[in-house]
Amino acid sequence: NESIKRLKSRIRQITSRSKPSPMEVRIEKLNQYLTGWCGYFALADTPSKFKEFEEWIRRRLRMVEWKQWKTPKTRVRKLKGLGVPDNKAYEWGNSRKKYWRIACSPILHKTLDNSYWSSRGLKSLYQRYEFLRQT
């Protein structure tokens, strides 16, 4: 589907690993884009698709965040700061897995979860969809 391709390419652009921009700016751009996109496509009766997109977007953000914590030292420190036990923090902080793979790891799934992203200001695509469906 053409509109899904456009959505994904736009999100890939915003969450690109090679373009340096602060996470706040990325999240702001994402919120802007997704609010408009959701407003247009809320008529579609596909809640599962919206959930899928949201999961994928969060995985992209986890990948970017991991990349921004460049060194193992920083990764271990950040993971500890998010409440991961020391031994797990060392284990995952020194992992050699690539960004996309680690973005789906249980450790990042638990620490950089939905509440983490909503506290950083990311608006939920699915909640927005639900809200627009009710009105």
Radius of gyration: 16 Å
Counted up, domains total 1
- The number of helical segments is 9
- Compute the number of strand runs: 0
Poorly predicted runs: none
Instruction: Choose one word for the global shape.
Output: elongated
Strand content: under 5%
User: Residue share in helices?
Assistant: over 70%
Mean pLDDT: 87
Estimated structural class: mainly alpha
Order of helices and strands: HHHHHHHHH
Report how far the terminal alpha carbons are from each other.
Answer: 27 Å
Largest sheet: none
Structure summarized in a few sentences:
The protein is mostly helical and 135 residues long. The protein contains nine helices and no strands.
